[in-house]
Amino acid sequence: MNPGKALLRPDMMPHILCPGCGHGIVLNVLIRVLARRYASLDKVALVAGIGCSSRIVGYIDANTLHTTHGRALSFATGLKLARPDMTVIVVTGDGDGLGIGGNHLIHAARRNVDLTCILFNNETYGMTGGQLAPTTVTQAYTTTSPYGNRERAFDAALLATAAGATFVARGQAFRPDLLDDLLDQALDHRGFSFVDVMTDCTEYFGRKNALGGGSDLLFSQSRSDVEVTRDLNEWPQLQDPHGFAIRETLAMGVLHESDRPTLEAVMGLSGYRRGEG
Ligand code: SF4
Asked: Which residues are CB-neighbours of 153 under 8 A, at least 6 positions away?
């Protein structure tokens, strides 16, 4: 039996995820990592904002906070400062964490709060209707870009690194083994750790761009173990009718690691530890 199954809240089932949604894979990996690392989740808190990814914290039998849109990191910061003995994990989406809550992300990274932030990056706002997100690749169609996106997408990992995060990694739903290792390393790290996870929204991003079902979207992530090229010119359904030439390269793995005092250490908070469940 999957040891993580005991960490689920059966009364919260059935879950809300659409068939083929990549978030289910990421949830599975997160539960396995938690089950392996912690004998009990009594001192583990999962904090989320709003969105399909944020909703998954409700399925895990830890201390869970489902907060307001984009504000998970500010709630998590307060929790960590009040209870520095706890392991605090933020689960957010690209719309929630980089769009609505982008300001909170850069300041949590700047402060080097001892949190782990897992950003489910499906390049769209899923739950709210498939709108354009700051991570939507140029040319992609969304509910609010019916003629194709004209903007350049944020590189979430670069942004977190520039803002001061001391551990930054990128994984993908296509590689649960790699993601498992990255989440483990992020949880081992003392300081603000950020994991950008490429996952897929079949219902909106996949459908709007005629990219196929869940398995088609997953295999589109499979270009390489260490580096994925999301080259829209190779996606015939996304041939640009307006002459835009786009090449997005997304590196995978641990992208940045550095060491500097955490906010909790600088403040001299008592009971500050990390990694104990
Ligand atoms: S709307 Fe998209 S992100 Fe949300 S559950 Fe469905 S497929 Fe997943």
From this structure: 123, 134, 135, 136, 137, 138, 248
Regarding the beta carbon of 53 and ligand 1, being less than 6 Å apart is answered no
Architecture of the structural domain at 18-255: 3-Layer(aba) Sandwich (3.40)
User: Cα dist. 223→20, 52, 62, 174, 271 in Å?
Assistant: 19, 26, 35, 10, 45
Beta-carbon-side half-sphere exposure of residue 106 (alpha carbons within 13 Å): 10
Closest CA to ligand 1's atom 6: 18
Which residues are bridge partners to 168 per DSSP? 194, 256
3-state helix, strand and coil shares in percent for the chain, rounded to the nearest 5: 35, 20, 45
Q: Is the CB–ligand 1 distance for residue 153 below 6 Å?
A: no
pLDDT in tens, 212-270: 888 888 887 765 344 444 444 443 333 333 333 344 567 788 999 999 999 999 998 86
Q: How far, in Å, is the centroid of ligand 1 from the Cα of 198? A: 13
Where exactly are the structural domains of the chain? 18-255
Mutational pocket test of ligand 1: of 199, 204, 208, the residue with most ligand atoms within 8 Å of the beta carbon? 204
Is 115 touching ligand 1 by the criterion CB < 6 Å?
no
Ligand 1: distance of its center to the CA of 21 in Å? 6
177-192 pLDDT, tens digit per residue, is: 999 999 999 999 999 9
